[in-house]
Fold this sequence. Notes:
- The chain has 15 helices and 13 strands.
- It has helices spanning about 1-20, 30-35, 45-50, 65-80, 85-95, 130-135, 140-150, 180-185, 200-210, 220-235, 250-255, 265-270, 280-315, 320-325, 330-350, and strands at about 25, 40-45, 55-60, 105-110, 115-120, 120-125, 155-160, 165-170, 190-195, 215, 240, 255-260, 275.
- A 7-stranded mixed β-sheet has the order 1-13-12-11-2-9-10, sandwiched between helices. Strands 3-8-7-6-5-4 form a 6-stranded antiparallel β-sheet.
- Strand 4 and strand 5 form a beta hairpin.
- Helix 1 (about 1-20) runs antiparallel to helix 13, helix 4 (about 65-80) packs antiparallel against helix 5 and helix 7 packs parallel to helix 9.
- The protein is elongated, with a radius of gyration of 28 Å.
Amino acid sequence: PCAMGLATPTSIMxxxxxxxxxxxxxxxxxxxxxxxxxxxxxxxxxxTVTEGVPTLTHIEIAEGLDRDDVLxxxxxxxxxxxxxxxxxxxxxxxxxxSDLVDVSDFRVVTGQGVAGLADGQQVHVGSTACIEALGVDxxxxxxxxxxxxxxxxxxxxxxxDGRLAALLxxxxxxxxxxxxxxxxxxxxxxELVIISGDAQATADAIGAELGxxxxxxxxxxxxxxxxxxDLRAKGRKVAFVGDGxxxxxxxxxxxxxxxxGSGTDVAIEAADVVLMAGNLNGVLTAVEVSQRxxxxxxxxxxxxxxxxAALIPVAAGVLxxxxxxLLSPVFAAGAMALSSVSVLTNALRLRxxxxxxxx
Length: 359
């Protein structure tokens, strides 16, 4: 019967179309279904629950070194990086044209930092673990690093020619809608997790401010993927929300990957759902559309199956032996059309779905 064949595709077509109008792009119907089944949503921190526009807030130079020389070399290397934190460092140091240095052999240590030869000196800028792995003694800045991390700052160190040179930190303000959206998602019964490449203490500070109890910090891009694998191994259905190049493996690993539309092309390509508005309210809208669409499909299937199960035998003459009742072909055709029209009308109700904004 036509209604049975229309029950699912019409709901998916109307649901994905309405979602697109609301700025949520589902790659396919399977993504719509999988999102309705998730019970855990994991978030990247930088650029997802935070604005992703960090600002340099703290600079401390190692004893015995010239501040201007150190900052000139650090900024020279960071200028070669495309990471938002690197841009914040360069903007914060404010190099003049005469301060620019030649940088060669530049390289990115994924998830840890950058390195290069600046004016012939080997400069490393990266996480505490990255600098410590070089054999550099970080003791002079260890306590200050911990204190800044507890306040939610992203901290990193600079080493020049194998010697500790500077401690720098940036802060990234939390998006104004983050707390409201995360609370609304919790109210829907979803478990929330933060997975971040920042130090554990920094990630914990953000998690505490947002009321998220499960925080996994200090992970590289492959670590984010492993964390999601661990959750899935426990039988959980997991969605991951991210925006950066480093988030692409996690977006691909999750049952459903959700990319912030203002993020990188790599993240958007790896995701199943793209939030074109560039803010977390889109996560709520995506979940709402997904759940409403799946509920609509079940309604359509239930109605179509029940309707046809009752009337096909009547049309076939099951009542004739006992009651002498036959269904006229004209009425049978009308009943069949009514079945399909009912399913289509119910599916079109999805066009009334409104964007969900956390209060």
